[in-house]
Amino acid sequence: MKKNKRTCKEDFLLIKRGIREFGKILPGQMGFLIAKSALSALLPYVAAAMSALLLNGLASAQNRSGLFACVLLSVTATLFLSCTVSALEAKIAAGYSRLFSTHALFLTDKSYRIPFFLLENEHVQNLRDQISGNIGLTGGGMASLYWDIEAVAGSLCSACAALVFVLRFAAQIAAGVTCGQIGAKAAVLLLLFLAVLTAACAYITCRVASKRFAVSFDVFAHGAEYNRYGEFYDLTYLPDDDMAMDIRIFNQQQLILEESRQKCYSVLAKGKRKEMRAACRLDMVKILCGGICSAAVYVITGFAAIRNVIGIGSVLLVSSAVTMLIAALAQLAQIFTDLRNNNVHLQNYFAYMDLAEETHPKGNRQADPEQCEIIFDRVGFCYPESKQAALQDVSLRIAPGEKLAIVGKNGSGKTTLVKLLCRFYRPSTGKILLNGRDIWDYPYEEYISKIATVFQDFFLFAFSIAENVAASQDYDEGRVYAALCKAGLQEKISRLPKGILQAVSHDYEEDGMDLSGGEGQKCAIARAVYKAAPIVILDEPTAALDPYAEQEIHEQFFKNLAGQTMLSISHRLSSCRLCDRIAVLDDGRLVQQGTHEQLLRRPEGLYAELWELQAHLLQVPCKIIPEETI
Questions:
Q1: Which of 65, 195, 208, 340 could form a disulfide with 285 if both were Cys (CB 3.0 to 4.6 A apart)?
Q2: What is this structure's pTM?
């Protein structure tokens, strides 16, 4: 029988893999869970069995010592099982508290190990969002598997224990036939009626339970999407400082709340009502089937008790066993449906975890010279799922210690060139050489140690300034302070109570502080200075700085990076005059290269056009309105 286009065998294999994967996330927890479930399922049977023995003993006028032994055994067994279950529950609760954070760490670790281009892939991004959304709203995936396995273990143990007592009752009926206490025909009819009744009640309850969980899955499957939508507006958009300004100026609050209500909360509420109706139907069927079955079982066992086939206490025991057997079978039907539905989440999780990972060549570190020569040899590149080439036949040599500016219009391929040099992507055609060796032949850690970057979209963690600059908990305080001074943050650091140990962001540290956009960018620049790599890449690093601060930073950079190879991308062409050479890209092609003066001597060239345009924009005078017209 197929469900969600999967056979039962395929679902079983997914569940099996999920259990193995869970063992990696929380080792040993599944064993604790199964043991606790089994013992919890046995507890009511211990109580029922001991009650039956006690009632049978009282009815048969058994001696007091025997009755006392039964009571003592029942209390001791119940106490032991209860204590063991409580101890296991404590371990399970401690493990479950780590489940979501550990699961997130597994996903994050996987994100680091897959190729960078997959992180930018829309399908992969949607897959990761779907996994996170399902975990956050429904616990779908590993969390659901966790509790489903607990229910399966408990239900199986309960069903097996109930079958033991039911089979024992059948054996007592057979013994009654042998002893002449009951006729063979009557015994067969009794047992057949009991079996058919139990099977019918269990089947009906299982069918309704299966439908109930199918409804719940449908609500959860769509609910993850609606929940992400609502959380974005209510938890992200509305409280955000920057966004909140727009909301107040344009009076958008009612618009956002109405959008959230219509596209999220109303839909979720409708789904929840549907789920509750399904749950109500299940409860009614359970009560009806349980009542009919209990009444019939009492009649059957009462008849057997009157014929002295079983003791009066066994009436209670058999009735409880049959009732719990039906409940266990219904629970198994629910969980089986839930497990198969949950496999949709597991499939998404495994699809993400099975993504290809980067393989880096291994080998001995070779002592390359401190200065590095970079050669782009007929490099072409096309982004995945794109038909248009981002770079076409680019050949460029950057001499050791040379300062190269890369300029061009938006979409000309500047950032793509940098991504290829950083090994975020492989060139589609051609190759990039570092000191005569293909960059993809270097061991990854060795190659990446040669590059320091400052991107426009930098990121700072809520750690100390020193840890952000050094990118490590182990750092040289003197070097950190020197790097911050070179980036122009000396005055800022001198005003901080803890200096370079001050935490960035007050969201997690009471004495933390927030850096402005320009200060944050200077901190990112200091990180590149601290690394002291032979190659430095600057991708619009001064975009958040004013022209005076930008000029200061560029001058300091060129002064402090005298022996290092540098690539600088900037839309402000004034900084290009400090570079040894300028490469001009247009529509993915290298169309010009030379010094600032050389390129300006070619008025028909793109660089001269861009320079004239910027100069014109900066020199447009403001029109002054005569006072008398005001």
A1: 208
A2: 0.69
